[in-house]
Amino acid sequence: MDKLTVRKVETAKPGKYGDGRGLQLAVSPRGAKKWLLRYMVAGRAHEHGLGSFPEVGLAEAREKALDARRLVKSGIDPIAVRRRASAAIPKFGAFADAVAADLAPGFRNEKHRKQWATTLSVYASPLRDRPVNEIDTGDVLAVLTPIWQKIPETASRVRGRIEKVLSAAKAKGFRTGENPAAWRGHLDHLLSARSKLASNHHAALPYSDVPAFVGKLRERDGVAALALEFTILTATRSGEVRGARWEEIDLAAKVWAIPPERMKAAREHRVPLSNRAAAIVEQMQAAKVSEYLFPGQLPGRPLSKEALIKALDRMNVDATVHGMRSAFRDWAGNETHFPRELAEQALAHVIGDKAEQAYRRSDALEKRRALMDAWAAYCEPSSVDEKVTPLRRKA
């Protein structure tokens, strides 16, 4: 006699619940629910997975269990049957790579193509050797839970890309049922909403505190401190600074031209360098060891994102690197008469609709130079030790 009801399945706590004749509902500590059928073949006990709830409901689970029991009665192991059927089903890794290649022409730049490849090969690595039709909610949670609160923005992207891959697998007939990576009505019941996660994701340093902070930065040795000050003075993103190459710098003209493939908006962004920003470039040039303006500890690699984060942590600053851009924007809006559009251009934000963008041919470099010079002057500490400790050239 059947023991489970739809209500019992929906509200089941972690543990195992029998439905009769070997059918069980297994609920993991994270709340993921999976159907199992226990049976005997040649005197040995076996456990056959029938899918996850809610992708497979109670009625469908009973039908699958009945079909499997018929195979057992005929002397056929249903697990062996499933393995033969799965041989024609692509693995998640290979299928994800194919989906990324199909979508690549629609990506804005090379950076986004690489991000797709990285998230699905690094963070979703536990899924790569699994057939796409066998991936369930528990598998997706196992990937997302460790990073969901630690790196929420990345975790959200990983979830969306897994959902995209599994939707493509369903469209090609490789899997059926609901998508186990879907957010609305599914994972939103099992994971915290992003709005409830780390509230200081882009916490900004008040611009009134920036001069004192820059003064403390100049008391520290090392590439990270210089890179962080350069990031503040140029109001650019940390990834743009960390990936800066010498070929992008025109020190004579005091201009840093960031190529489109490294920009979020996929457009070249010219950054006017203030005297202090140019001085940092000259200081790094004296210790030049690689193609990168701010080299990392590993040969041929740029400074890591973690290096900048650790620099902030060591200084006990309640702000993020990205939040320094907010400090610049608040200062420009509250303390200057520079036009709003100029500050937005300095941040490499897209201004206006497509028609306005088509008529906006100039990037107002010299006007922005005046803005960035004023920002550099504001960031200058009230008392500055003019003695600069030169970086030592690495062996």
Averaged pLDDT = 85
For this structure, the CATH topology of the largest domain is: hpI Integrase, Chain A
CATH superfamily of the largest domain: Intergrase catalytic core
What is the N-to-C succession of helices and strands?
HEEEEHHHHHHHHHEEEHHHHHH
Q: Just give the CATH class of the largest domain.
A: Mainly Alpha
> From the 3D coordinates, which CATH architecture of the largest domain would you assign?
Orthogonal Bundle
Rounded Rg: 28 Å
* Cα shape: elongated
The main sheet comes to: 4 strands, antiparallel
The residue fraction in helices comes out at 40-55%
In summary, what is this structure?
The protein is α+β, with helices and mostly antiparallel strands and 395 residues long. It has helices spanning 6-11, 58-73, 78-86, 92-103, 110-123, 137-148, 152-171, 210-217, 223-234, 238-242, 275-286, 305-314, 323-335, 340-346, 354-359, 365-379, and strands at 15-20, 23-27, 33-41, 44-53, 249-250, 255-258, 269-272. The protein folds into three domains: 6-86, Double Stranded RNA Binding Domain (2-Layer Sandwich); 92-196, DNA polymerase, domain 1; 207-379, Intergrase catalytic core (hpI Integrase, Chain A).
